[in-house]
């Protein structure tokens, strides 16, 4: 980034010299400008997002009662001993206005069918299965944990999905949390909305 900034300064200096003295090199200077602009493009985008969005790295479709990550042995081993920390309720409230589209998913399926649909959708998204607990027991709830990788750096992010049976329907809640950094620049909310769109696409093709 420092070199790209220096290149932009040199481009401005080169333009001044070329304009005043009529020297050659306008093409090379322009090419250098575009290379520097491309290098700085993504950091500039992140800077804008950092100002626009709240400082959050853990997003849930249920702000009041977010799903919990599994503490099973297989889940802990898959995460190399890492357990995503929770957020205070007052901090999590900031996501309501920032990400109004992040809402629970309600499907007209029984819980077992919804469970299978989520597994299929997660596979289509390239998520890695960590742990699952099929719906059952007194509550009828189900639970699945996944790991997904960030697009640019390939860091592991953690996802958990909770299933709650409703009359003739199933409510699906997701929680996506970044392992690194206090600010996710909107990545977790985008992951959840992209998953919801993919799940709807899977439903439409049933």
What does it look like?
With 206 residues, the protein is an alpha+beta fold. It has 2 domains: 2-52; 58-204, TATA-Binding Protein (2-Layer Sandwich), CATH 3.30.310. It has 7 helices and 6 strands, in the order H-H-E-H-H-H-E-H-E-E-E-E-H. Strands 1, 2, 3, 4, 5 and 6 form a 6-stranded antiparallel beta sheet that branches. Helix 1 (2-21) packs across helix 2 (26-52) and helix 6 (111-125) crosses helix 7 (187-204). The termini are far apart.
Task: Sum this structure up briefly.
This protein has 206 residues and is α+β, with helices and mostly antiparallel strands. It is built from seven helices and six strands; from the N terminus they run H-H-E-H-H-H-E-H-E-E-E-E-H.
Counting H and I runs of at least 4 residues, what is the number of helices?
7
Radius of gyration: 23 Å
CATH topology of the largest domain: TATA-Binding Protein
Q: Largest sheet at a glance?
A: 6 strands, antiparallel
Write down the overall mean pLDDT: 88
* SSE series: HHEHHHEHEEEEH
**For this structure, what is the CATH homologous superfamily of the largest domain?**
Kinase associated domain 1, KA1
Mass-distribution shape:
elongated
Low-confidence stretches: none
- Percent helix range: 40-55%
Structural class: alpha+beta
Number of strands: 6
- Our count of domains comes out at 2
Question: What is the CATH architecture descriptor of the largest domain?
Answer: 2-Layer Sandwich
Q: Termini, distance in Å?
A: 48 Å
CATH class of the largest domain: Alpha Beta
- Beta content comes to 15-25%
